[in-house]
């Protein structure tokens, strides 16, 4: 009897302790999620401000006929510094929060760009023009904010540290290997139709970008997490998987930028922003759910509310971008007349072509 009584007593003492540990673990996870979300929001805001600063620099140089090159202005360099700072914040956010939370927060950049564009717009507009062009943008901003709030509130909780052993275990797991096989087959098919059949549809190009982007964010989270652990004292840089992930991150980011550049030459930037955000976010969340098991242990209500937040954010981004005025290519990013010797070289080239054509004409007349 005494033994049974003491066992029951020990069980009663253990229950509150385990409950307290669970509460502490959940609190710590929520704190990490909050840090990651705030870093991502800060990073996207700063990147948006940086891009608009650089755009303002180009517009001001073009309108004032300033002979200086854009890289000789303080505004452009300030924009570059802010862009690097913002990208660093987004990069660090992957080390703290789940992939499924960080990726959809790219909507913050679209919201910020829309607000900056509306506030600092220089053109005149009529009341009916304002209603047609900007009310839906304000509605889109509101929807995107609501969607972002739902994403942050119902995002999955991630407790796993990005150690070399954990990343290697996820990399060789059969769900991710199956996902990689499907993704490689789909990517090769899309690339074949794009290159050989000239399928230049925006969905085809941006789906290629999204498939590459999903691998980029998976590797970014691994690299960022291992770097943060190394800074905290748990060295991870001696694992070969770190360098494998780093090389994959750089390679996929470069090819992703290449396809985006090709898409920007054929389609309007607002269409690329909306379609690209929807496709890239969907594919990246799927990759994160399979590789990092983001939604394991989450109840159905949280998953459904998270999905609802994604849909609302998608709708908001679509409304923001669909009413944007198409950009007029008023001047190139690299001002040709600012390049050394450009004017003289082209003048000599034109003179040479003119002389050659005159000689050819005289020669033909003499033969006749």
From TrEMBL:
Q: Which domain of life is it from?
A: Eukaryota
Q: Which Pfam families match?
A: Mg_trans_NIPA
The keyword Ribosomal protein is assigned to this record: no
Q: Which GO terms describe its molecular function?
A: magnesium ion transmembrane transporter activity
Where would you find this protein in the cell?
A: Membrane
Q: How does it sit in the membrane?
A: Multi-pass membrane protein
Q: State what protein this is by name.
A: NIPA like domain containing 3
UniProt source species = Rhinolophus ferrumequinum
- Give the gene that encodes this protein: NIPAL3
């Amino acid at each position: 009897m005494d033994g049974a009584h003491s066992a029951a007593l020990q069980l009663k003492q253990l229950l509150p302790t385990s409950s307290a540990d669970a509460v502490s673990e959940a609190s710590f996870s929520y704190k990490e999620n909050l840090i990651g979300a705030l870093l991502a929001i800060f990073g996207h805001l700063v990147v948006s401000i940086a891009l608009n600063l650089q755009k303002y620099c180009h517009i001001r140089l073009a309108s004032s006929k300033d002979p200086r090159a854009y890289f000789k202005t303080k505004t452009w360099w300030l924009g570059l510094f802010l862009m690097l700072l913002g990208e660093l914040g987004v990069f660090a956010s992957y080390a703290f929060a789940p992939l499924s939370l960080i990726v959809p927060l790219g909507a913050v950049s679209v919201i910020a760009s829309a607000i900056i564009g509306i506030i600092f717009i220089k053109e005149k507009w009529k009341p009916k023009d304002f209603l047609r062009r900007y009310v839906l943008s304000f509605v889109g901003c509101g929807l995107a904010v609501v969607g972002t709030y739902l994403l942050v509130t119902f995002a999955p909780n991630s407790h796993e540290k990005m150690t070399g052993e954990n990343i290697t275990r996820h990399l060789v797991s059969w769900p991710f290997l199956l996902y990689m096989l499907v993704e490689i087959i789909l990517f090769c098919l899309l690339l074949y139709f794009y290159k050989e059949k000239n399928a230049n549809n925006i969905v085809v190009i941006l789906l290629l970008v999204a498939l590459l982007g999903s691998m980029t964010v998976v590797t970014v989270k691994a690299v960022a997490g291992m770097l943060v652990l190394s800074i905290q004292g748990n060295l991870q840089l001696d694992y070969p998987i770190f360098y494998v992930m780093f090389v994959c991150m750089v390679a996929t980011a470069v090819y992703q930028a290449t396809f985006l550049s090709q898409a920007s030459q054929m389609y309007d930037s607002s269409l690329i922003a909306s379609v690209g955000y929807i496709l890239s976010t969907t594919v990246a969340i799927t990759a994160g759910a399979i590789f990092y098991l983001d939604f394991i242990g989450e109840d159905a209500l949280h998953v459904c509310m998270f999905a609802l937040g994604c849909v609302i954010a998608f709708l908001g981004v679509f409304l923001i971008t669909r009413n944007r005025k198409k950009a007029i290519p008023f001047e190139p990013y690299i001002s040709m007349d600012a390049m050394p010797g450009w004017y003289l070289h082209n003048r000599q080239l034109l003179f040479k072509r003119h002389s050659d054509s005159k000689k050819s004409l005289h020669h033909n007349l003499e033969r006749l």
